[in-house]
Design brief:
Helix content is 30%, strand content 38%. The chain has 3 helices and 16 strands. Strand 7 (123-131) and strand 8 (137-146) form a beta hairpin. The radius of gyration is 30 Å and the shape is elongated.
Amino acid sequence: MANDISGILNDLSGSGQRQVANPSTKISRDDFLKLLFTQLKYQDFESSVDYKDLMTQLSILAQVEQSMNLKDTIDELSKSIARANFFSASNIIGKKAYIEGKTLFVSQGKVLNYPAFSLDIPARDVEVKILGPGGIVVKRIHLSDVDAGKHYVVWDGKNDSGNAVQDGQYSFEIVAHDSAGNEFKPSHLTFGKIDSVSLEGNNVFVGIGNLNFEFEKVIGIKEE
């Protein structure tokens, strides 16, 4: 009997329930306890029963129960944190923010968010390359003598030839040089006005036009 119960407990400790011969039938913790007490009630006491092993397996069951309760607690905590982040994110609707990312979007000829970057040290020069489909450079923007800190670059939605680019998604790359002429890559950011906040499961997203970013990616708000 102990071996039968041990087998069930081993399954319980692995998944919290056991699939038996009939695919539609599952053994829960409550079902197991009923089975255990029934077998103890009608067992043949002349048979050899390894009670030490049985107690060990019951200890495992207690640990499984505790783990399940802890998981429920963690799930509830995650939901509470997500709700708190959602209300916190709602406070930045209408504000302009720096967000980690390299994605830009053009809609009806209007650039919804700008390329941005963060410098740990001053840069002698900075080159911003706007990339279209296939990684093709459509626009280059050059800056000189840029201080350390966060900066955004206004792009008018036109290519190097002065023609308006097509609507859609773009990306960008930024390369900088220090005072000695050494090349380095600043942290890539994007900059734009937050116009929406959404909660999907336990994840909070802020929206800029057609783009959604994780709330955790917001690293700064530009006060005006």
